[in-house]
Amino acid sequence: MAPIELFRHQDHACLMYTDLVEEDGQAVQSNQFLIVDHGQGAILDPGGNLAYNQLFLSLSRFFPPQGLSYVLASHADPDIIASLDRWMTSTQAKLVISRIWERFAPHFTKVGKTDGRVIGVPDAGGRLPLGRGELWLLPAHFLHAEGNFQFWDPVSRILFTGDLGVSMVSGAQARTPVTDLAPHLPRMEGFHRRYMVSNKILRLWVRMARQLPVAMLVPQHGAPIEGRAAIAAFYDWLESLQVGVDLFDDRAYQLPTGTIDTATHQVRPPLRAVAG
User: Residue 66 CB: number of other CB atoms within 10 A?
Assistant: First the structure.
């Protein structure tokens, strides 16, 4: 499938690849991204092995993978970088990832593949040179990973938000930017309530994000959010959203009593004693 041009102007481009993995109930839809500035390229959250072949071939039609300078990983989930070994083999790119995950990433590769090729990002983030410009690595810790970064492209004014802003859509819906947030919220709410850690973290993130002139928010799953009104509505929604630990109480931590049926994958309630 051809990539979606999120932005292109002169020597700068941002492309989105989506639905490279067939949704058969075994894997989730995900987006992968390529940013190129003056001939230097970075791939963002390249995905797992299920996406690698199609992504590599599709990307090759636009930019030589051997010319990639970076593989940027927002965090270390399998759907983010399970294909890392193959990218370390087929390119000379360096992995850019939180220092928290720096020593975990080699578990995705053969021994020695990441030696001297990992740039560990401190919690405060930083600005990464790319071509004649730079990408900003923004702290987004606990949204949802302990060490988590988002990527801000000042040229396109796109904020690549990883798992924040995710929606449960695929196909044409994932390729069509959302400009009216309200009808889209039901596709987002369940995921955010489960995967984001707390409202406090959301509010801290919103305070930071409002300082940027964002033209588009692009998550790792689902549809981009585009336009001032939709982005402002997203910020407002997050500020009041109760998620994660906000929703837990002592009922969430009880010793299990049911048995998992390995045939149906359902939990069977415990057998009751029969009165004699």
Answer: 10
> Domain limits of the chain?
4-268
**pLDDT, the chain, mean:** 93
The hierarchical CATH code for the domain 4-268 is 3.60.15.10
pLDDT in tens, 81-107: 999 999 999 999 999 999 999 999 999
pLDDT at 200: 98
| Cα separation values, 44 from 208, 253, 266, Å | 21, 36, 37
- Cis-peptide into 144, omega within 30 deg: yes
Predicted confidence at residue 273, as pLDDT, reads 55
The β-bridge partners of 118 are: 95
Beta bridge partners of 225: 178, 217
Separation of alpha carbons 253 and 239, rounded Å: 27
Res 275: pLDDT? 56
Cα separation, 214 vs 228, whole angstroms: 8
Give the burial string for 227-264 (b: 16+ CB within 10 Å, else e). beebbebbbebbeebebbeeeeeeeeeeeeeeeeeeee
Q: Are 1 and 174 in contact (CB under 8 A)?
A: no
pLDDT in tens, 210-269: 999 999 999 999 999 999 999 999 999 999 999 999 999 988 899 999 999 999 999 988
Q: Are 54 and 20 in contact (CB under 8 A)?
A: yes
CB 29 within 8 A of CB 170: yes
Please, which pLDDT band fits residue 2 given cuts at 50, 70 and 90? confident
One-letter identity of residue 259: T
Q: What's the confidence (pLDDT) of residue 274?
A: 54
Between the alpha carbon of residue 210 and those of residues 59, 98, 213, 228, the distances in Å are 32, 23, 8, 11
